[in-house]
What we know:
Residues 109-281 form the D-isomer specific 2-hydroxyacid dehydrogenase NAD-binding domain. It contains 13 helices and 12 strands. By secondary structure, the protein is an alpha/beta fold.
Amino acid sequence: MTKRDVLVMVPPLPPQMAQLEETYAVHRYDLAEDKAAFLAEHGPHCEAVATNGHEALTREQLEHLPNVKIVACSSAGYEYIDVDALTEKGIPFTNTSDALSDDVADCAVMLTLATRRHLVQGHAYVQTGEWGRQGMYPLTSAIKGKKAGIAGFGTIGKAIARRFEPMGLEIGYLARSKKDVPYRFFDDVVALADWADILVAIVPGGPETEGMIDARVCEALGPEGTFINVARGSVVNEQDLIAALSSGKLGSAGLDVYLNEPNPDPALTSLPNVTLYPHHASGTVETRDAMAQLVVDNIAACFAGKPLLTPVNDVAPARA
Ligand code: NAP
């Protein structure tokens, strides 16, 4: 039986890549030197695309993929993929938000605790012997009783709220529409920052949210406030964040994502009041495995004419 053709724009992990190679005729766009020529040659007979949200998939590229029945993305964010164009063309699109939401929410909690309770500074205080020389480390601020603003209240924002609530944090959130939850709704990020002690960004990247966290937000959060970013570097005006953290207008920040990855601005990373993580919120063996498997399983479901496991757009798979 002839194998169906699958375009691999970004490969999943090796075990899942092996599954794709066993089942399909795989075309490695990721390895092609002349990607435009490769797409023009192999795109027309491909029936599925395996990718992630950091790789662009434009309307123009889709012109070379007339037979694609599914685009399976192995990340939660997909701001470089033209999902509107996919929907218009009747192509289902899947992501992996459900598989990674717990790990990313854990990371938001980890950065919140580490930043507010000075984990990194305390570690250095013990390791360098400062504790013995200087005595007790300065007091920090309690988590319980503070207000946490969650900017973005989708799959991951809700998972963060589920963790914050039993920690004794009062929760407010920002989204495009009000949800049926017992938390305070804000439709303005400055108002949310003004209300909150801790502001967590977990909105999608892309033009709509670009630079959302700016000088006004930092100043509204204030000298005792903490900004946590597990969303995308693009949602922050980084120069405004650096200025606010340097001047003390914003107290501290815990960051997993940056504008310039993997070499973020040293003016940001050298500040004493930041806690840094290398865009690794979903970086556990279990979650990365589940994310990669979803790519394989969504493609298989689509070809079998079955419901997709993690659909994003409202397009049912075409019958095989
Ligand atoms: P989601 O379920 O689509 O939720 C997104 C939330 O953001 C929704 O509540 C949405 O509001 C809100 N939103 C979107 N645009 C907005 C705007 N312009 N203003 C205010 N709110 C807006 O997405 P998710 O799965 O939770 O993931 C969120 C993002 O996290 C991803 O897109 C990705 O960029 C990032 N992420 C980062 C990591 C990491 O490694 N650090 C890992 C996974 C994901 P409505 O509900 O009203 O539509």
